[in-house]
Amino acid sequence: VHFPDVERVEWLNKVLIQAWPYFGTIMEKAFKEVLEPKIRAKNVHLKTCTFTKIHFGEKCPRINGIKAYTKEIDRRQVILDLQICYIGDCEIHMDISKFNLGVKGVQLYGTLRVILEPLLTDAPFIGAVTLFFMQKPHLEINWAGMSNLLDVPGINVMSDSLIQDFIAARLVLPNRITVPLKKNVNIAHLRFPIPHGVIRVHLLEAENLVQKDSFLGAIRGKSDPYALLRVGTVQYRSKTVSRDLNPIWNETFEFVVHEVPGQDLEVDLYDEDPDKDDFMGSLLISLVDVMNDRTVDEWFPLSKTTSGHLHLKLEWLSLVNDQEKLHEDKKGLSTAILIVYLDSAFNLPKNHFEYSNGECGAKKIKNNKYLKKMEREPSSFVLLTVGNKTQKSKTCNFSKDPTWGQAFTFFVHSAHSQSLHVEIKDKDRDSALGTSVVCLSHLLKDPNMTLDQRFQLDHSSSDSFIKMKLVLRALNVEEPDPQRVKAGVNASKQGPVRVVEKGGNQQKFVSPPKPEVSKVPPVSRDSAALESLLKKDSREDLDTNESSAAPVPSETVAGLNEAECKQNPEHHPSSALHTRAAAAPTLPVVQELRLAPSVASLGSLPSSCFEFSSSNLDLHNGTEMPLGEIQLTVRYASVRQSLVVLVNGCRNLVPPSNRGVDPYVRIYLLPDRRWSSRKKTSVKKKTLNPQYDEKFEFFESLEDVKKRTLDIAVKNSRPFISQERKELGKVRIDLSQEDLIKGFAQW
User: Fold this and answer.
1) In principle, which of 40, 69, 241, 686 could form an S-S bond with 660, CB 3.0–4.6 Å?
2) Terminus-to-terminus CA distance in the chain, angstroms?
3) Cα distance between residue 364 and residue 372, in whole Å
4) Closest CA to 690 of 559, 505, 531
5) 148 with 99: CB under 8 angstroms?
6) Which helix or strand (DSSP H or E) is residue 663 part of?
């Protein structure tokens, strides 16, 4: 195990492989004996449904890594994040009347969180297991049968997205599956814990966005940008700013955060077009850092694009049980959050005519067909409304005592004047079976701001009730800890992105408060950072076809710049250089740990990767004074038969004059010095610490690569007539000395 927090669990994968055939047999039995009768009972048209073939295949799911949380959580729980990858060869076929429908292969990637709580002092030592996906898992299904219909691109995509939505409705936060392991364990508070907090996002402005509007390939006009903001399954869209590459939005959005660490804020920018909106860049922000900093107001560099920065102000709001914090906000922002635990209802009327005394009901009852339909139990769902937001529960079929067991959250602007409106409706007849109105001021009479009771239903029978638990919590911005070093722009992290979309971008540096010296030894953090650099490209070994590369869960290595600051001064020939390196908040380029199947081949890295002098790098300076450093990640991708060179960035370059430097990086794979095989990064304007994040590939066999030398030069882009020195520094790497399959990453 080479990572401090994410662990490879090969022993568990071996257990899964061994047990998979037995699991398949159990599932085949469940499909025939449990699922088939349930499907037949759902609808008249499904009465002939029969599973003709059920085979779960030879390939079992693989767990690429597990991250265990035991600190900063309750002492009576353990949290595990499982990075699951399933490329299955299962085959399931079913006949419905004359149609044959089936599945032949499934792909699924996602991070499954498993919470073991409460921990007990007697067997089985764990009270219950709670499961959910942090984000919607990536899903691909190969359909079989009804080929002429399901091969139509629109229908195929639609069926996949319908199933994804079905999974999301049950398995993605805030939904959870809780399995009690001990009798008499109250699982209600495990299934519906109070959220961790609320993130308020002020989407302010952006600058230097990429031009996307073009006509016949020529850039014609400016783009029309808008933003999509997402936390978990909740997504908001900003307004569109017409024809502006430096748009100003000044909009505010609020998200409920259910799990920290785990949930992140995702922001995607698009250019609105009549046909298809163009992607303009994205951002992934770690909410743990925002929670710790309380308030973050920064310009964040966009990733997966060539230029652009986004200005966000993020506020973390804690949920407090304090009525004094419930003052009404003059700007119209939320001051509280209402959590509704919808449990069940009792004695619902079969239809709303049964208790309404009017001619309308009597006339319709005469219709014999309608009478038969009304005799059965209602299929009911609930509409809950606070202010102008309405949420809908799932439908419970054919029951006058339905149990929903769901939780809903609402933002509240004024707890003293707003109300919760509840309406139970019948799915088949779209008629109301009962209503109830609860004034939120009733909750203020309780010291815990909680109501857990049955509420009498109006416009229903006299003994019809609905059981709910209502919890009101005030939103409070706490003062940040003055001792803490703020994460600031470092809160942004690389997300689970497709390999093909990666592009360079300039890092915008903002002077942070002077960082304190980290108490953690730098070795472990540095090696974690460099492991993560290697993971960046190992993803592509999953699939030779880049376009079908699926997203892989990622984790952040936090606080890396603190570790860089605590380097041993003796590695630096000049103390002045050391101070400069410590002062610049050089955010390490890739802050992620990716775990693809190919990661098994990665070994440990030298712990001195961030040291200034390195044995296998040959500095061609010709001077005693160093000319700066370049950070590179080099590895051989066996599946693609290519040498991958990732130019991450440079730091502490020495300017040839006081006019500033516009650096770029040029690469040759010696002895080939042809112009056509030269690789070159984009030019970064006026910076001595450029960030590139640009990837280059040389398609050669491993044997040939082993005989070659990488020639890498950092150059200054200057006018043709300028007398300034062009080359800023050069490095040569003898590839015969390196383990390229394992790869290396260093300054």
Assistant:
1) 686
2) 24
3) 12
4) 505
5) no
6) strand 663-670
Largest CA distance in the chain: 102
Bridge partners (DSSP) of residue 114 are: 80, 131
Structure tokens belonging to residue 414: 């004024």
Identify the sign of the CA torsion 593, 599, 604, 608.
Answer: negative
The length of the chain in residues reads: 747
Residue 323 three-state SS: helix
Q: Which residues of the chain carry a pLDDT beneath 50?
A: 1-3, 148, 357-367, 495-623
Backbone angles phi, psi at 631, to 5 degrees: -105, 125
Q: Which pair of tokens denotes residue 277?
A: 């909106």
CB 157 within 8 A of CB 301: no
Q: 96: closest CA among 141, 56, 146, 57?
A: 146
Question: In this predicted structure, what is the pLDDT of residue 169?
Answer: 67
> In the block, which residue shows the tokens 């017409």?
242
For 38, counting Cβ atoms within 10 Å of its Cβ (0-12 exposed, 13-18 middle, 19+ buried), the class is exposed
Distance between CA 576 and CA 310 in Å, rounded? 33
Whether residue 422 contacts residue 466, with contact meaning beta carbons closer than 8 Å, is answered with yes
How much of the chain is in helix, strand and coil states, percent to nearest 5? Answer: 20, 40, 40
- Whether 629-746 and 336-353+377-477 are alike in CATH topology: the answer is yes
Smallest CA-to-CA distance from 349 within 407, 435, 438 is with: 435
Phi, psi of 570 (to 5 degrees): -70, -15
Answer yes or no: are the C-beta atoms of 555 and 592 closer than 8 Å. yes
Helices (H), 498-648: 522-538, 560-565, 575-583
- Per the listing, tokens 């662990």 go with 7
Gap between the Cα atoms of 552 and 593, Å rounded: 10
User: Are 724 and 716 in contact, with CB atoms under 8 Å apart?
Assistant: yes
For residues 298 and 382, the answer to whether their CB atoms sit within 8 Å is: no
Map tokens 């769902």 to a residue.
381
- Compute CA distances 423 → 117, 373, 379, 642, whole Å: 35, 22, 14, 62
Q: Which CATH class is domain 336-353+377-477?
A: mainly beta
Give the domain 197-213+222-320 fold.
Immunoglobulin-like (2.60.40)
Strands 432-439 and 295-301: unpaired
d(C-alpha 517, C-alpha 44), whole Å: 70
pTM: 0.58
Q: Are 526 and 610 in contact (CB under 8 A)?
A: yes
- Tell me how far apart the alpha carbons of residues 209 and 311 are, in angstroms, rounded to a whole number: 12
323 dihedral zone (left: phi>0; alpha: psi -120 to 50; beta): alpha
Q: Is 50 helix (H, G, I), strand (E, B) or coil?
A: strand
Helical H runs in 133-258?
Answer: 147-150, 153-171, 188-191
Classify residue 16 as left (phi > 0), alpha (psi -120 to 50) or beta: alpha
Residue found under tokens 């500095």: 619
Question: ω before 671 within 30° of 0 (cis)?
Answer: yes
Rounded CA separation 12/105 (Å): 23
Please list, residue by residue across 529-561, b when 16 or more beta carbons sit within 10 angstroms of its beta carbon and e when fewer do.
bbbbbbbbbbbbbbbeeeeebbebbbbbbbbbb
Distance CA 233, CA 231 (A): 6
Instruction: Please give the CATH number for the structural domain made up of 629-746.
Output: 2.60.40.150
Q: Three-state DSSP class for 22?
A: helix
Residue 306 Cα distances to 179, 203, 309, 623, 689, angstroms: 47, 21, 10, 34, 17
User: Domain residues of the chain, as ranges?
Assistant: 10-187, 197-213+222-320, 336-353+377-477, 629-746
Q: How far is CA 695 from CA 434, 635, 672, 682, in A?
A: 62, 11, 19, 11
| Locus of tokens 């005592």 | 401
| DSSP codes of every residue in 374-425 | HHSPP-EEEEEEETTEEEE-PPBPS-SS-EEEEEEEEEES-TTT-EEEEEEE
C-alpha closest to that of 399 among 356, 341, 463, 345: 345
